[in-house]
Amino acid sequence: MRLIKERTECYESFHKSLQYFTKNSEARGDLKLLSFESHKSNHNLLEKYSFFVQNLSAFQKKILFAQGLSEIHLLTQEFVKRILQSKEVEIFLFTEEKRNLVPLNKNANHAHINSVNKALKDGILEWIFETRKPTIIPDLAAYTINGSKLNHMLFPIYDSSSGYGVLSLYTTASKVAADSIENNSVQIILGIIVPMIIALRQKHSINKLYQELQVYQSKVQNDFDVNTIGNMAEGLLEELGEPLQVILSLSNLIENDYPQVDNEITDNIKKQVAKVSELTNRLSKFAGLNKPKTQNLQSCNLNKIVKEFKSVINATLQNLGIECELDLEDSIPPLLSNPNEVKQILASVFSLLKAASQKGGAFIIQTKYIREKIVLSVFTTEHIEGLGTEFDSKFNVTVKLVNELMKKNEGSAEFNSLPLKGTIIHLIFPLKRKLSV
pTM score > 0.85 for this model? Predict the structure, then answer.
């Protein structure tokens, strides 16, 4: 019991004040003050916990019936906005090469996409994945004298221990503590949806592989049937030549040895033989013209080609005073291509580097195998004019040549050059090549 001798208007009832105090384990009989943020009563605190629990329970029930990635995105967007007041909520996942982030929502705002990928290129996401904590980046576009009215909040998403993507929010919240209810609720939601997203993407990948397998099977079966019929027809054409020649010889023999036989009969035989002979010649020419031209594709060891190429350009590098280092991944799978075309691509890339490099410069050639793609990368600290933007690259003849050769190999080339960061060139070759119909 406590005795209040003054006016009690400024005091609250005793039972309500108990919520602020609890027994202190360090000192017997002491009471310590508890901080419940802005909540002033147990009733409000229980309401807050009850709201978050009900929210998560409702989300879990609905997400179990989600049929696709778009539905998962919509549900996540809806429930995250209940936890944190947000203008936009987007889920971004890494591409196979982990060089870009793509949104789960196909209608995502382009400015939102650009800001997330800028954070990736600036190294902000690396720090976020290391700390494993939500990070807030002020939105400079919404910045005023009183501060930023809108903040860009990023939550890391993991696949086991590696980075898988980010949950990105445009929110009015200025901070979210790592031990707050809001952060824990978002982490629980991510823990629910990430396995579902991975499972759906794997299912899609398996279905795609199965479809490719069926295409290959049908193509091989059809090619086998057509090839068998073609071989039989080619053999028949060759066998028809000899009987036709015998028929012509016998017709001439009949004309010479049996003059009483009407010449009209032998002429008719010769005409019919000539028709058959002309038809077989046409079929033989058609078969020859429609045989697939050999592209000289073969299994290529990319590391071996790169080493051979370096040995060829060594003398030029020494004369120019340029260093070249190799960073080749061991045991990468072989590449299905034309070795001469790969060497031509390397020669074109080297011509770009040679024109821009100065004495004492250096570049690195790297090979990596990343998810059914073989990536040949070239790094240099020199800035190459004409590679700054995609628009500039269109007018560079050497770049156009490299792009065309990569398209011929069903691959792609990426060029990036900045004055302060140097030049990076990625040549991406597919491990699997399409069958030409």
Answer: no
